[in-house]
Amino acid sequence: MTVPAMTPPEPSIWMIGDLQGCYQPLRELLSHPDIRADPNARFWFAGDLVNRGPNSLATLKTVMALGDRAVSVLGNHDLHVLAVAAGVRKPGKSDTIDDILGAPDAQEMIDWLRHCPLAHYEQRHLLVHAGVLPKWTTEKTLELAGEVEQALRGPDWKARLAKMYGNEPTQWNDNFRGSKRLRVIINAMTRMRMCDKNGHMEFTFKGAPINNGQLMPWFDVPKRAATQDTIVFGHWSTLGLMLRPDVICLDSGCVWGRQLTAMRLQDHKIVQIPCDQYQEPKDH
C-alpha cells in the first residue's frame, strides 16, 4: 500500500506596518514566538522601512537579509531615500538616512530599494503603502504600479524620479502620459490619505480621519472600484490599526512611540511590539 505524500503546509504570511528605521522593535517582532513558530514564514512590509527612526541602516539590512521570504512595497520615505541618493531632493531636518547613504554598500541598498514593487497582490490581498484611487480596480492598480516600477528600475531612473514629485494632478485620467501619469500613480500609492467626494486626492490633511461628506478617507469614497479584495496599507499613523473586510491599516505609529504591528494573512492574528522610546510628532 502506497502512503500518499503529505503536502507541506503553506508558510505563514505576516503583514507588517511601517518600520521607519525602528530596528529594535523589528528584531523583537521577528523573535516573537508566534512568528518564530513557522521557520518558513514570509513577510510583507507595507513600506517606509526607513527614516525618522533611530537606525535606518540596520532596519533596511534586516529586511534585505530575509531574501525571498520578504517583499516590501515602496513608501514615500523609501522613495525619499532614492531621491536624495539621486541628488534630486535635499535631506530633510528630521531625516535619519545618513547611515544608509554613507555606508560602503550604499549603492547595493539603493539598487535593492529601486527594485521593490509599488504594489503586491496575493491571496485576495493587495498591499500598497498608502492607498488605491477609488477609480482603480485591483488589476488596474497592479498594471499602473508596474509602470512606475519599470521607470525606477531603468538606467535613467534618476531623471525619471526627478519629475515624479509634486501635488498635481490630484485625480486620475487614462490619457495622462509621462511624468504627470507617474506622479499620480506614486502619489496615490505612497502619499494619499484623504479624497474629496469625487475621488480627488487632498494632501494637506494628516490627522485622524474625518468624513464630512465633502472630504473623506480614500477607502470611503462612494463607488470605490477595488472592493473584491482586501487592501492592506500603512502610512496613516493617526488612523492607526484598522481592520475591515475591505481594508486593513497596519501603521500603528511605532516611530511615534506606540506599537509595531504584524498581522498573519491566513487568520488575521495580530502581534504587536510596544515602541515607547519615541515621541509623538508635531507633523506626521
Shape: globular
Described by strand count, sense and barrel closure, the largest sheet is: 5 strands, mixed
List low-confidence stretches. Answer: 279-284
Helix content: 25-40%
| Strands in their spatial order, largest beta sheet | 3-2-1-12-13
Radius of gyration over all CA atoms, rounded = 19 Å
Q: SSE layout and pairings?
A:
Elements: E1 13-16, H1 23-30, H2 33-36, E2 42-45, H3 56-65, E3 70-72, H4 76-86, H5 98-101, H6 106-114, E4 120-122, E5 125-127, H7 138-153, H8 157-162, H9 178-190, E6 194-196, E7 201-202, E8 215-217, E9 230-233, E10 242-243, E11 247-249, E12 259-264, E13 270-274
Parallel strand pairs: 1-2, 2-3, 5-9, 9-11
Antiparallel strand pairs: 1-12, 4-5, 6-7, 6-8, 10-11, 12-13
Helix pairs in contact: 1-3, 7-9
Protein architecture, described:
It is a single chain. With 284 residues, this protein is an alpha/beta fold. Helix content is 29%, strand content 16%. It has nine helices and 13 strands. The chain has a five-stranded mixed beta sheet, with helices on one face. A five-stranded mixed beta sheet has the order 4-5-9-11-10, with no helix packed on it. It has a three-stranded antiparallel beta sheet with strand order 7-6-8, with no helix packed on it. A hairpin with a 5-residue loop joins β12 and β13 (270-274). It starts with 12 loop residues before the first strand and ends in a 10-residue tail after the last strand.
